[in-house]
Design a protein that fits this description.
The chain is of the alpha/beta class. The chain has a single domain, classed as Alpha-Beta Barrel (TIM Barrel), CATH 3.20.20. Helices cover about 40% and strands about 15% of the residues. Strands 2-3-4-5-6-8-11-12 form an 8-stranded parallel beta barrel, surrounded by 5 helices. Helix 14 runs parallel beside helix 15. The longest helix is centred in the middle third of the chain and has 26 residues. The chain starts with a strand and ends with a strand. About 50% of the residues are buried.
Length: about 450
């Protein structure tokens, strides 16, 4: 194997989300969000809540110190909408803005570039009660929220991402009910939620750009190449349909202002004239969250008649997700070929495993180290082949509240003891730190 190198200005860091790490859900005027309600209604598999999580709200200086020691120079975090606007609109909570002031100032002092995401799933419950992402009425409130946060932080935060994984919000939150807010509205619920997120995103991008110059504006999409389980025509159709739903509605919406042809008839009832231009925006950055390919087969009775096929891979993560690093290379090459080679940041890439704490308190997570090594090889190959990749942010800095799985799944490169909140860097933390500091990936 050869030593693989990265550009000298490549960004290295980690990603987190507010709801998964902050805790302090009833502190400083924060309002309720859909995940608070979802957890209170007993939908978290291990019965836990995010009430404390990693207590990042109070322990952020320690977490920033960990990033600095690793040699990271970038950090993607999300703003908690209900901390800023407790009811989603109207009164602004100054203590919420003050927290993100402190966080951003501390990051800059540590030499870490703050990259803010405005929406990572914690929709204020009062907005959900008014229709949430099923209603076009959410477009204005999201744009107002974006304007308020940018007015406070844009003098120091130059990188802004509007949404995180709108496809996951739509499919699992509104289609099949496995995530908050827990609706089972099927195909139409999914497509409405996707479309309204696209419209809100476009409005927010324009709202920020109208008032601030010199910013890098974009969004974060979970993109997973959809491949058919077999060459049977019905499986090929299922994969094409799932690609349209999972990847293309969000990607083509912001990049092209288009509805995928396969879905045009199904979305005709709520797409209005002018929506294409409202969705499209010449973004400066495209955040990509990649975990695996989606292998799809024809399955009547499933949404869009697309079911999960048999993934071809040698290993699986603790989430039972296939490990397919070559899919990341293919994805980056596709973006270069079909979308004019946009500036891409790997905004999430990581894995959960059942970590074992050694008698001396260390965590030797060899499976996670191998996962990161293989995916970084794919990124380095893509950069070498001309893909415009600007940075790599692992998921995640900390073990955290993993949505419907609660505290039972650990994605962090730093272990969190949920009883004591003690942070313990894992071998994967040291591995990524070494790559970040050297800018190269040496043979194993």
């Amino acid at each position: 194997m050869e030593t693989l190198t990265f550009p000298s200005d490549f960004l290295w860091g980690a990603s987190t989300s507010s709801y998964q790490i902050e805790g302090a859900l009833d502190v400083d005027g924060r309002g309720p969000c859909v995940w608070d309600t979802f957890a209170a209604n007993g939908h978290i598999q291990d019965g836990s809540t995010a009430a404390v999580a990693c207590d990042h709200y109070h322990r952020y200086p320690e977490d920033i110190a960990l990033m600095k020691a690793a040699g990271f120079n970038a950090y993607r975090f999300s703003i908690a909408w209900p901390r800023i606007l407790p009811t989603g609109t109207g009164r602004v909570e100054p203590r919420g803005l003050a927290f993100y002031d402190r966080l951003v100032d501390s990051l800059l002092e540590a030499g870490i570039r703050p990259m803010a995401c405005l929406y990572h799933w914690d929709l204020p419950q009062p907005l959900e009660d008014r229709g949430g992402w099923q209603s076009r009425d959410i477009v204005g409130p999201f744009a107002d929220y974006a304007r308020i946060v940018a007015a406070r932080l844009a003098d120091r935060v130059k990188d802004w991402m509007m949404l995180n994984e709108p496809n996951v919000v739509a499919i699992f939150g509104y289609g099949v009910g496995e995530h908050a807010p827990g609706h089972r509205l099927g195909e139409q619920g999914i497509l409405r939620a996707l479309h309204h997120q696209n419209l809100a995103q476009g409005a927010a991008l324009r709202a920020i750009a109208a008032e601030h110059g010199g910013l890098t504006l974009g969004t974060v999409l979970n993109l997973q190449p959809a491949v058919p389980d077999s060459d049977r025509p019905e499986d090929v159709r299922a994969a094409a349909m799932w690609d349209a739903v999972w990847n293309r509605v969000a990607l083509d919406g912001v990049m092209k202002g288009e509805i995928p042809a396969l879905l045009a008839d199904r979305m005709a009832g709520f797409v209005q004239p002018g929506d294409g231009e409202a969705m499209r925006y010449p973004i400066d950055l495209l955040g990509i969250n990649y975990y695996s390919r989606n292998t799809m087969k024809h399955e009547p009775g499933r949404i869009f008649e697309a079911g999960w096929g048999e993934a071809r891979c040698r290993r699986w993560t603790g989430m039972a997700w296939p490990v397919q690093p070559e899919g990341l290379y293919d994805l980056l090459c596709e973006l270069k070929r079909d979308y004019a080679n946009p500036a891409v940041y790997i905004a999430e890439n990581g894995c959960a495993y059942d970590d074992v704490v050694a008698p001396d308190g260390t965590v030797h997570d060899a499976e996670r180290v191998l996962y990161y090594r293989e995916h970084l090889e794919s990124v380095a190959r893509a950069v070498r082949d001309g893909c415009n990749v600007k940075g790599y942010l692992c998921w995640s800095l900390l073990d955290n509240f993993e949505w419907a799985f609660g505290l039972s799944k650990r994605f962090g490169i730093v272990r969190v003891d949920y009883d004591t909140l003690v942070r313990t860097p894992k071998d994967s933390y040291r591995f990524l730190g070494a790559v970040a500091k050297s800018g190269r990936l040496d043979p194993a």
